[in-house]
Every structure is written in C-alpha cells, then in structure tokens.
Amino acid sequence: MLLKRLNVLLIVALVLAAFAGLTTTRAQSATEVLFYYPTAVGGPISQVIEGYAAEFNAANPDVKVTAVFAGGYADIYKAVDTALKGGGQGPDVAIFLTTDMYSLIDNDYIIPLDDFIKAMPNGEAYLKDFFPAFLLNSQAFGQTWGIPFQRSTPVLYYNKTLFKENGLDPEKAPANWQELRDFAAKLTTPERWGLLIPSEGFPYWLFQGFAIGNGQNLVGEESNKVYFNTPSTVEALEYFANLSLKDGVMPKGIIKWGDTPADFWSGKAAMIYHTTGSLTNILKNANFEVGVGYLPAGKVGYGAPTGGGNLYILKSSPAEKQAAAWRWIQFLTTPEKQADWTVATGYIAARQAAWQTETLKKLVAEKPQYAVARDQLQYAAKELSTHRGSDVQRLFAVAVHSVLLGEKDAKTALDEAQAAAEALLAEFQN
C-alpha cells in the first residue's frame, strides 16, 4: 500500500514538473513587445492601458506586451530619439503625436504599415473604416505610417448652469466668433472668467480652429510649406488676442493647458477650449451639467484640427517583434476596444464601426456630449505637421505668445514666423 502511494505521488510530481516546464518554455518563447504610450489629459489612462495589455496577453500567450508610460508626447519622442541616436534599443511600438510623422520618417525611425494591412483578409475595409479626417495625419508619400488610436479634436465646453443664470440658452453653444465674445462678456465676473483658451503646451493646435474657420489652415497638402501669415490668419490671431487684451473675457498672458479643465469644473471659468480627450474626466469632476459644442465658426464656417496620437511600429524592432506589435495594434483598434477607449477617456473612437456598437450607442443616448467631437469631424482639417515639425510649431507658438503678451502686432509676428519657417523648410523643397 505504501509503495502504491509512493508511485502515485511520484507520477503526480512528474506531471507537475512537466507542466511547469511547459509553462516556462511557453513563457520563454513568447515574443516580448515593448510598448511606449504617453498621456496629455487627466484620468486613469495608465490603468486602462495596463488592463488592455493584460487582456491581450491572456488571449495571446505567444506574445507578451509590456506597456510603459513614458510621460507626455514630447517626453516619449525625446526618449526614443535619445535611445536610437545613442545606438540603444527603443520600444517596438509606440504612440507618438500624429504630427511627429514626418520627423519619424525623416529620421528613419518607423516603418510603413501597408504590407501588414494588405496581408489582412479585410485590410482595405479596415483602413477605410477609420474616419477620413484622421488619416490626413497618418499617411504620406503614398503610404500609411500610423494607425489612428488616441485621437481627438478640440471642442468648446460650457457650464449650462451659468448659461441659465445669465439668460443664455443652455442647449446652444456660441455658434460663431461674435457670439463667443458676447457670451463670454455676459459670463465674466470679478471672480470668474467667461472663457479660457490655453496658449501653453499646444498653442498652434487650439488656434488652428480659428484659422480654419476663417478661411485658411496653417498647413496644406504639402509637407514642406506653411501658411502662417495669410490675411485671414492675421485677422484670426487679432481676434484671439483681443479676447484678453481688449475684451477682458480671458486673463492676459499665457494660459496653461493642464490647469484649464480644473478651472472649468471648479467654476473659475464658464467656457473653455480643450481636447475631447478630457471629456470623461470633466464630466466626472463637474458638479453641474456640462455642455459641449463645436468650436465657434469664423467668417467661412466651422473648423477644427484633428489631434492626438497614432500607433507606430519602430524600424529598429526585429521582424518577429514588428509582427507581434501589429497584432497588438489590431487588438487596440477593434471597434469594441475603440468604443471602450471612448468611454474611458473621451477620445474619439477612430473607427466608424465603433459607433455602431451597443457600447457607444448607449453612451451617446445617455450622454450626447460624446457625439459632438465625432460630428465635428466633418469640418476637421489636418493638424499642423511638416518636416522639422516641432521646430516649425515652436516658431508659430512664439508668434502667438508675442501677440498675446502685447509685444508685437499679429501681422508682424506672423510675417516673422512665416519667414523663419520657410528658412527651416528650405532643405526639403526638393
């Protein structure tokens, strides 16, 4: 009897050892994928991404995605740039700004994704399902370089309670520049600003809404040309600056990007411009009914830039890791995951099919604010993206800041920015 029991225990031990060995072998054979992601808004984005990675890894035991929060968008680009230029190893896949695309291509950091897309059984339909406006900053030179994921447009947030208290229709956001100024004047008190439009962080981005709506975007189809000093853009910058310098509905100086949502939900501002990616966090923190509207129209009509980040695969990554990274990208961009991402953050689900899921149908029925940025995409245009992208954007930011601070008039500042940008882009004319 004792011998029989020992034999049974021995068999069990051998089975357990074999299973442990198999598990170890599977773990060791899994293709490890390093994923860098940034954030530019408040809320539990890290927890959401970590949850996605855990779910993907459980369903794909031959791949192990390690998600690393790498700071803001500028931080993630700097980290990758430093690693690759120093001969080190960067991530296999990452979220960079859509506007980083040309710099990533020029530095030979990323690969085009067309071969992966063509290998899909429904590749053409997959790509066409993304909103066309989001592909404007995802494709170049006849190829697709980034897959839309963490995408946005700026929108106008307003406090419906304060609208009611000041005789304004809480169901109607200001429709145009005149109404924006008039509404802001009614809502401004010694304790509260009628309007806040951040000019720190992404000054060109929020201003693009003014430029597009007034007749000319800051950038066109070309990757080596900008339109900073057209008459319509000069007029738009004068209007923007006068909101603080003459109209007194915004504070003078530079308004911080990161502080603006909290100033809104705490009651320090009645209206703000900010990314739709802040929507979930704003709704969570506001103790009043939040209204969301299109960016008010200029003399030509509505207009807004697209924004946010795309998923890119790094050229320095080995082929097997690139293939695994593509599977991760496909997972993140399924209609179901895109729908969940919108609920969790407020970013716009980039695929049109996501808006047909029960998740987003229910969300929009209960909270119609989530549909505003999606619907505004019909008026959306390309975000400012060129060769030497961050340098060109910085030139425009300097011009905007000099006007907001009262140091230069709009035409002088924009003429100087245009000349400096043309000098930077001269090497890319051919």
Number of helices: 19
Which superfamily, in CATH terms, is the homologous superfamily of the largest domain?
Answer: Periplasmic binding protein-like II
CATH topology grouping of the largest domain: D-Maltodextrin-Binding Protein, domain 2
The averaged pLDDT comes out at: 92
What strand order characterises the main sheet?
Answer: 2-1-3-11-6
Kindly provide the radius of gyration, computed on alpha-carbon positions and rounded to a whole number of angstroms. Answer: 25 Å
Stretches where pLDDT is under 50 for at least 5 consecutive residues are 1-27
Strand proportion, as a percent range, falls in: 5-15%
CATH class of the largest domain, named Alpha Beta
Main sheet makeup: 5 strands, mixed
Helix share of residues? 40-55%
The name of the CATH architecture of the largest domain is 3-Layer(aba) Sandwich
Overall, the morphology is: globular
Short summary of the structure?
This protein is α/β, with parallel strands linked by helices.
